[in-house]
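User: Hello! I'm new to structural biology and keep hearing that structure can be predicted from sequence alone. Could you demonstrate with Citrate synthase? Please show me the input and the output so I can see what each looks like.

Assistant: Of course. The first part below is the input, the amino acid sequence of Citrate synthase. The second part is the output, the predicted structure written as tokens.
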Amino acid sequence: MGSAIPVAIFKVDAEPAVELPLLRSTLGSTCLDIRSLGASSGCFAYDSGYGSTACCQSRISLVDAESGNVLYRGYPVEQLAEQCDYLEVACLLRSGELPDSRQRASFAAAIGRQAALHEQMVKLYEGFRRDARPMAVMVGVVGALSAFDHAAGEFNAPEQRQLRFEQVIARLPTIVAMAYKYSIGQPFMKPRRDLSYAANFLYMLFATPREEYVPNPVLVRAVDRMLTLQADFGLDAASATVRMAGSSGANPYACLSAGIACLSGKAFSGSGEACLAMLTGIGDAARAGELVARARELPAGARLPGFGGGVCGANDPRLPVMRETCHEVLRETGLADGRFGRLVRAIEGVALEDRVLVERRLQPDTEFYCTVAQHALGVPSSMFACTLAMARAAGWMAHWEEMLSDPEYRIARPRQLYTGPLRRPLAAAPAS
């Protein structure tokens, strides 16, 4: 914790004043320490949505919209995406340092050993409807992992937490791929130890028993970059949900299931599907100007899906890497010069040049390019949130373990501002 210096005085009427120390962060906003406020004054802070409240100290990642920084353990995310792979970044998020070659090889081997699911999980998938939302399937399957791991609730020792971390990172791609295969009626493809993390994911998604599938190295690298760019994003709603669930001592699978459920909400991960639906509705480069008409119809402050969104907006340091990755995928899949590729370029041109869109800051954001790239890869829009959950698994597990290691760790107990009726007697029942 940073040095605490009394800088604020809280006083209500004739009650004694309460000093609120100032906690300085290494980068980003400074915080007033209000932990003693309730006991000292009888008052509590009200902050709907926690927009002005820090609920924990964390060293994992920082999102600073004003400066345009997204850092994983101090490293710029855009540099990590270009120079490292997802498994290295997962190690970084958990331990605080990038692995050396030996540590990286050991971690990759552990991921390979843990990637397969118990055969009984196949029957669990068969209990879902074929048209079930993949995120709903993920919530159920991830939560059910603890039923196949009786030691899931034992994580006091560092080696136990390391094992849980490896199991989650290894099994999420398998779970996502199986959800997709089940939805289209194709047989599940078992994970392969001879493939990299991203290559194995593409193999499980798109391979079939009837023909050989060799993952394209350009597309493999693109998927790996997208996973890295989305591995963590500060303490957003889903990460906070994982911490909240974990504060009760729940097993990590239950915590991740809660995080996935939060991520499935339209306010969180629905913009990718909405963005692709909008692009499909426009349909052709010649009609790209319809984007302007849609923007004019928006109420003040509203956004088009995939345009001008996110915490960082145009300052998002992930944006150039995601844009480059998107166009690499379009070229490699042969879509760059086709109808869809021309539409994407036309939409980009309109968004960057039209006065209405520029004034409203409705330029393509990271969600736009991630949506286009996944569509070009062949990932259906219903799976976009699943791939995001897969990427976030590393960050969620890092938050879960950091919370358990915090000396101030305790069960979360948010306060409420009660606005209901006063105590009132229950009317006596009429005599029969």
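User: So the tokens describe the shape?

Assistant: Right, they're a compact way of writing down the 3D structure. Reading them back into a model, for example: The chain has a mean pLDDT of 92.
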